[in-house]
Structures are given as structure tokens and as C-alpha cells.
Amino acid sequence: MELKVRILELLERDARVSTKTLANMLDENEEVIAKAIEEMEKDKIILGYGTIINWENVGVDEVSAMIDVKVTPEREKGFNAIAERIQHFPEVRCVYLMSGTYDLSVVVGGRTMKEVARFVSHKLSTLEHVQSTVTHFVLKRYKQDNFIFGEAEVDKRLVVS
After folding, report:
1. Whose CB among 104, 106, 119, 127 lies 3.0–4.6 Å from 67's, allowing a Cys bridge?
2. What is the DSSP string of the chain?
3. Looking at the structure, do residues 31 and 81 belong to the same domain, yes or no?
4. pLDDT tens digits, 41-73
5. Are residues 76 and 128 in the same domain?
């Protein structure tokens, strides 16, 4: 299992790394690495491979929001049933069960703030068992999944003494 964890740590940093490179980095046979990755994909440990994109640098405007959702859990299903309904909306990127004041945290995306607001008012808040929502719009991404967006801004203010 230790080998698999080491493979996962390396793939999490760079999903494009080849099995040959992984084998060299881990001082292991390439076939062993390929078989381990195949097993982890089959066992749904590795669910997919993604790319972190800075859409701002491409000139594509996108709005993201984090929505706190308070729900009434269903008898014998708890929070799972409502979370499963929410996760199937195409606007939804992530759904988390949370501790604290709100039960679920939902990350959504859209082209405009109005589009996200429409999702909350017409789809999310109208679901049975949803008591309330609080929407937080993302104003700027600084870091996501260990990737830093942009360079650190230089403070150009004059020093006053």
C-alpha cells in the first residue's frame, strides 16, 4: 500500500507524469507502477485526471460561488439523499458534508452572477428539505489544488516615514 500512496502523491502533483518517470522516481519496475495505477482506477481510488486552468489568462469570464446549505436530513437516509440530488445539477462542481452551522457546502460555476443566482433561487433553494442557503461569490482565486494563480503583486505604494 505504501507504493500506491507514493504513486498517488506524485500523480496528484502532476497527472501527466509517465509510468516510466514514476518508475524511475520510485526505483520500481514500470510494469509494477502501471499495474498499481490500473488497480487504483478499477477500485475507484483514482477517479479521473484533471487540469487546473487559469481561465482569466485565456480571457474567459467565469463566476464561481460557494453556497452554504442548511437541510433537514431524511429519515434513514440522512444527508445523502439531498446531497445526491444536488450533485447531479450541471452547475455543481463540488458538494461537501460540513460540520458547523450549515450542513452542505456546494461549489457552483456559471457565466454570470445572475446565472448562479438563478440556479440558487430556481433549482437549489426550491428542493424539498432545503431550509436555507447563503451564497458567497469568489472574487479572486489565489491558489487551488496547490497551484498558485498569477505572480505576487508588487506593492507600488510610496513608503511614508
Report:
1. 106
2. -HHHHHHHHHHHH-TT--HHHHHHHHT--HHHHHHHHHHHHHTTSS--------HHHHT---EEEEEEEEEPPBTTTBTHHHHHHHHTSTTEEEEEE-SSS-SEEEEEEESSHHHHHHIIIIIITTSTTEEEEEEEE----SEETTEE-SPPPP--PPP--
3. no
4. 999 999 999 888 888 888 888 899 999 999 999
5. yes
